[in-house]
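Before we proceed, please read the two lines closing this message. Tell me what the token row says about the fold.
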Amino acid sequence: MSIKFSVYKTPRPKGSKDNLEHARLVSRGTKGLEEICRDLSDACTVNSADIKGVLEALTVYMGRELGYGYSIELEGIGHFSPALRTRKISEENGRIRFSVSVDGVNFRCSNRLKEMVKEERPKKVKRENISSEPIETRKEKMLEYIRKHE
């Protein structure tokens, strides 16, 4: 298997004469927890339920420790740290104060993981817009929408 990509035109402001293009990943989908646990279980002697339990415990642990202000380094995976958002607030008396809140979690991938992914050679594929419905059904829906929303 390899990483697949397709080429898209880069949006430009009106009047710009640049015709730039960029590569965009063609995703194969998203691996969910159940599938990850099953695949890991197949690769080692730990059963899927135990793997799921460990991942749940790790999630709770990381959430608590990140909430306390710690950063977390998972060797081979990456570095996690709390992300902050700062808002500047002007008070009526002219004073300026700052409001700080947690905005999420920063993630910096480990060099080992990055190198493993970089070993793959991306392959260009033709873009396809695939619909789950036949063209006649889509056409009927479009015409119905037009009738309702002149």
Notes: Helices lie at 33-43, 48-67, 111-118, 135-148.
